[in-house]
Hints:
Elements: H1 7-15, H2 39-43, H3 52-64, E1 91-98, E2 115-123, E3 130-135, E4 140-143, E5 146-147, E6 153-154, E7 157-161, H4 165-182, E8 188-192, H5 194-203, E9 207-211, E10 215-217, E11 222-224, E12 227-231, H6 233-241, H7 251-270, H8 272-275, H9 278-289, E13 292-294, H10 301-311, E14 319-323, E15 326-329, E16 332-335, H11 337-348, E17 353-354, E18 363-365, E19 406-407, E20 414-416, E21 421-423
Parallel strand pairs: 1-8, 3-14, 9-21, 17-19
Antiparallel strand pairs: 1-2, 2-3, 4-7, 5-6, 8-13, 9-12, 10-11, 14-20, 15-16, 18-21
Amino acid sequence: MNELPTRAQARAQEKSAGPSVARHGRLKRHSPFTTVAALLLGVLAVAGISTAGVAAYATYDVAASLKPAVKLVNAKGQVVTPGIGAMDGAFNVLLAGSDSGGGNKAYGDRGENLNDVTMLLHVSADHKNATVVSFPRDMYVPIPSCPDGKGGSYDAMSRQKINNTLSYGGLACTVLTVEKLTGLDIPYAGVIEFDGVIEMSNAVGGVDVCVAGDIKDPYTGLDVKAGENTLQGQQALAFLRTRHGVGDGSDLGRISNQQVFLSSLVRTIKSADTLANPVKVYALAKAATSSISLSESLNNPTTIASMAMALKNVDVAKVVFVQYPNHYEGDGVAPTKDAASTLMTALHDDKPVTLTGDTGVGSEAAPGAQAPAAQAPAAQAPATQAPAAQAPGGTSTTAPADGSSVQLPSDVHGQTAAQVTCSKPFQD
């Protein structure tokens, strides 16, 4: 695993001439990670428990399992403290996957604590659409000045891989970095570790995934056969960790492979079999909260319940998983500014997005699956359209004034939670 450079080393690296020629898809770094995008739909599903007595106990017990909260700050160093109560309007939550293993010796010594998964959940103001953006771990981004936890701050860096942020300045630094990159305010955040993924998959009785061919990855221990597989425990984690076993062996292929699992997890969580089963809902919420560290703004049962109410009626066809637009550059990837501007301006303007590209190099449509119909526009109350926001990258993109969805460029990959897809085995 590459170690995070010191501030002096980072500055020296920025001044060094010429990018590395190593291909992002073939990097010899095997640090594992966990995934989190569907976490909130799981944690917050406790609000759907129908039996009052079980709900009361579950709320108390789940709240008791919460870890100490993480303090977030804004760009001015001020502590972020959103109001507590009913969730009103749109909101953004950042969820990071730590490769630390949570202290479990079975995962070995992970060294630096990297955020090998970074995902942003945006829920629309009308609570009818949810967009989950995955940020490639090897994407080069500017890292702003971050709090050092001792009352001081770390220096800003103009170009480092985004997965360094958790080690550099903790969850607050990851949030500040994504805020700078996207132009969005992110008042809520959390970090989940290996054990959380395992227990969540166990809580729902396994997650069904489709695999287009046999996958055997010695790096993660994944061993699945072509066809339908029900994954839980260590195999679920191995499926989410695998990179060498899918697509072109890159982190980008791994992201689309994750979305195969996540879309199925969302369908499982939203199914009547789960939401109508108090035991499953409680186990899911308990599993998630016992393995995550939440920001102070989110570490509150009232806030969690408020978000649950906002999420519970989102149709699976309106849950969109999208890979942050990027392109290969040196030994990693860099943001594709025009496409990123379209995506981020849509979220800033609270518009639903429609994918026009494919699902990515690590997945494909399931055999016999019909192409999803165009996403229906969400109803919008405002009669007038606010001026277009200046999106990251210096490009201004005007969202449709009639409230229709924004079509993303064809080179932006992803899928909806309603789409049934299959993982593609690695092909050299």
